[in-house]
Amino acid sequence: FFFLSMSTPTESVLDDTERKEEGSHVSEWQPKALRARPEILELYERSRPLSEKRTFGSYISTSSTEAKHALSHKNVMQMILGLLDESGYQKTKEKLEEETKFKYTEGTMCKGFLQKILQMGIKDVSSALDPTLTQIESAGVEGDPEVEVFDYQPTFEVEDTGPDIDIWDEGPITNHNLVIGQDEVAKTSFIVSGTSNKIIEFITSAKQGNLTTRNLVLATYQSWMTPEKFFDKLMQRYNIPDISIQQQKDMEPEKFVKDIRTGVALVLKSWMSNHPKDFSERVIEKLRDFVENRLVKDGRPDLAKTLRSPLTRLMEVSVQVEESSIDVSKCPDPKVPKNIFSPLLTLDDVPKEEIARQMTLIDNKLFTGISVTEFLSRNWSKSRNIRSSAVAAIINRFNQMVKWVVSSILRENKYKERARVLMNFLEIANRLLSIQSYNSMAAIFFGVTHGAIYRLSHTFNELSSDARRTLTTLSDVLNPDGGYRKYIDLYESQKPPRIPFLGAHLQEISFLDETIPDTVGDMVNLSKRKIIYEKTQSILKYQSIGFNFLPVRQISVFLNKFDLIKYENEMYKISLLREPKGISATDLVDYEKDSML
Fold first, then answer.
1. Which tens digits make up the pLDDT trace of 138-158?
2. Helix (H, G, I), strand (E, B), or coil: what is residue 188?
3. What is the pLDDT of residues 63-90, one digit of tens each?
4. Integer angstrom CA distances of residue 81 from 97, 287, 316
5. What is the per-residue DSSP string for 454-511?
6. What is the phi/psi pair of residue 494, to 5°?
7. How are beta strands 523-524 and 519-520 bridged, if at all?
8. What is the CB neighbour count within 10 angstroms for residue 118?
9. Exposed, middle or buried: residue 443 (CB in 10 Å: 0-12, 13-18, 19+)?
10. pTM recorded for the entire structure
11. CA 80 to CA 95: how far, in whole Å?
């Protein structure tokens, strides 16, 4: 809801022309406006706690309180323009005024009114308005951490690869619709680039199709078409026109039809078995109808039998509740503090080893949700995919953790206390390194080496020798030279379970995505997908192997509710207050004493 502020009877809700038509004296206008506009009346009553004004009943009694939940476009624009004006985005405000033909009238809405409105419906309004757009998991709606949240099925932005031509109408293979390469070692052919139709034709062909190319297409097709369209294309391939059968000269018509339809069934079987998350209820229903009706009608009970088993498993997957794969017998006992149930639980109360374990479980849940498709065409960074992207969720958590580390250190007034907090974080990072949980480890490292922290020389002078060694080790592992080569070599050399520092891998994948074109003419560049797919396999290879740690909900909730200093400029201001430039250690002690007075 948007709420309208009426701080005085002279503030206008109706335009001046409307007020004149009413013929109302200024002192009578507000009661008449509220009586005439029940939707505004409800908005006014709901916004009363914000403005601390009298209820309408104290002006005049009325029974007309039915809300139409409507607010004029003009007033909404005034609130948006007001927010831009308050935030200092003058150029944006002027451009918006130019485009919308609305001019901002100062004083029309009270300061911060849009934020107050959003606070009524969104718990974390600062995240809703955060220009960094880092609230991925809940998009500004904090919710109850005790309640599990299930998002919609991931859907990804796909490029339009041209007009949709029926697979049998495209014509014969040419260099403009399919380019084939030869693997001299494996003695097989593969697709370099091709149109959607010719790619489908290739992977369903008994003569040309091979398992490697089929698996590549099934893993990457969502970068250029949706699952529903992919299924429809397979059905086009299955429905062979009579004229195409009559024109076939290389083999008997019956064998021609049988081979193609068998090829389609094999692709469907592999698709259902290896990519169950691709299937919406709509596509599953189409599949069920195809298996139970069409195949039987066409005299292919053999294919129906082949597909029933993976289809049954697919339907079970679509409705089953996720079960834990943790082997409790192999899990160490959680190290919990005595005040584990206290609402005042803090970082200092929980053993550092257990914090590292719980951070790992949080990261692992996000990591196991990543699909190869997210790495193609940088789908994680596209606005319409933010809510359903596991990669974006990991990036968001990483950024939030960096801010949390910085905020936690800066909130301490005394440099020795800041050093204590910094050492705690370094100990946690060392624990994370030892269990191969690299994403949170890297987040802590980038937090303690953030500019607002790293300049605190007197704080760093207080670090213990163990903390210094940990900082040196992390600096070496996360050296950015060669695209984080040391870290990537370490990650690829280790056995599972492990969680990657995703930022290092995305750097290389983003470079490949930017430098290699998505299409070649009107054809999908499948060789590009193959390169990125092979890179992602090294990241996701052991994705299904989890950590044998027991979740502790109280600690997990604590580690998901970060108290942050949100903006970089604010961090630097506080940093300068904590340790002014050029101050000596002796003067800093006196400065801290004076600050406490």
1. 333 344 433 333 333 444 455
2. strand
3. 333 334 445 667 778 888 888 877 777 8
4. 8, 50, 50
5. HT-HHHHHT--HHHHHHHHHHHHHT--HHHHHHHHHHHHHSPSS-B--HHHHHHHHHH
6. -100, 155
7. antiparallel
8. 17
9. buried
10. 0.69
11. 13
